[in-house]
Design goal:
There is one protein chain. This protein has about 325 residues and is of the alpha/beta class. It folds into 2 domains: about 240 residues, 3-Layer(aba) Sandwich (Rossmann fold), CATH 3.40.50.1820; about 80 residues, Orthogonal Bundle (Rna Polymerase Sigma Factor, Chain: A). Helices cover about 35% and strands about 20% of the residues. The longest helix has 16 residues.
């Protein structure tokens, strides 16, 4: 893992009116030095982190030298959601997770960018929870982003998302092996019956144990070994707090404020943030925002397709990043 950098946030006022005396905001940068190239902010998903490329990079297929987000032409900044535990310091975990919202995280990220003297951003991109944060960042600074690219997410948490977050919370509170069990349940949302049935075909690994059962157990054990319970609770909770219209007005009013070109990417088989909701979002927005486009990943794999169907995702992103990579430059305050 690349050495993490840190910005210290003091007396941060949360959306609910409470103040957090101190929060460390850890991040990594990749590619060109700050101030010399357009900035791309990459927001991680629920179990992700700031290592978006390089050794153990979770989006290496998209970010790197010669990749669609080309590190020869861009500066990539990736923040860790405070409390995700990626810094490895137990004292930085958050116990009062229910006090935090996606909007709070978006405000923290903007404060971090301003501490780095970044006032304008070429693109903000993220999948799932990371895409929800991207939506909020765009509303908070509606004239500071050229491209908003939310993937496998939506501008709000639907009742379906809230219901599943509730079930996850119940598992995390009451299970004797909370991370493992919550992760196994989540995997059934992130994939689809078609994907799982095609992969395992009712195979048995040894008497009485199906291959699919072992696969789920392995996912649970892997997450248990690298994720803290308080971090999982925070990330899960954040998913239900997302709504760019809360205390702001109608969707039409809010979407009109965003000056960025919006590129929404859905997944046709997503069981979590459904493609139907994504299509409706774009349809509703088109009367109020001229620069919004919709792309849909075709995949049997469901929500996790944005980690799998890289060729399709690259084809959607290429017009943004390759056409414009030498034409746009970020403004840095002196």
């Amino acid at each position: 893992m690349k050495k993490l950098a840190k910005i210290e946030l003091y007396q941060f006022l949360l959306e609910n009116g409470k103040t957090t005396p101190f929060l460390p905001l850890y991040f990594e940068t990749f590619g060109q030095s700050l101030g010399s190239a357009p900035v791309v902010v990459v927001n991680h998903a629920l179990t992700g982190n700031s290592t978006v490329t390089g050794e153990k990079g979770w989006w290496n297929e998209l970010i790197g030298i010669g990749k669609v987000i080309d590190l020869e032409h861009y500066t990539v900044i990736a923040f860790n959601i405070p409390g995700n535990g990626y810094d490895g310091i137990l004292g930085n975990l958050i116990s009062n997770y229910q006090d935090f919202t996606v909007r709070d995280i978006a405000r923290m990220f903007w404060q971090g960018l301003h501490e780095l003297r970044v006032q304008e951003v070429f693109a903000i991109i993220g999948g799932s929870l990371g895409g929800a944060i991207a939506w909020e960042m765009a509303v908070l600074q509606p004239t500071s982003i050229q491209y908003l690219i939310p993937i496998a997410t939506d501008w709000k948490a639907t009742d379906w998302v809230i219901a599943n977050v509730h079930v996850q919370e119940q598992i995390l509170q009451h299970s004797t092996q909370p991370i493992q069990d919550a992760r196994q349940h989540a995997m059934l949302l992130y994939r689809t019956p078609m994907s799982i049935n095609a992969r395992f075909k009712r195979a048995v690994v040894f008497p009485g144990v199906f291959a699919v059962e072992r696969w789920l157990s392995n996912h649970g054990e892997k997450l248990r070994d690298r994720f803290r319970l308080s971090a999982y609770r925070l990330m899960n909770h954040l998913l239900k707090t997302h709504d760019i219209t809360r205390q702001r007005g109608t969707f039409a009013e809010v979407i009109q404020s965003i000056q960025a070109s919006i590129h929404v990417v859905g997944v046709d088989s997503d069981l979590f943030f459904t493609a139907v909701e994504n299509r409706q979002t774009v349809q509703d927005a088109q009367g109020f925002h001229a620069q919004i486009q919709y792309y849909e990943i075709q995949s049997p794999h469901g929500h996790d397709a944005f980690f799998i169907e890289f060729d399709q995702l690259i084809s959607f992103l290429q017009p943004v990043f390759h056409t414009h990579k030498q034409l746009h430059y970020v403004n840095i305050q002196n």
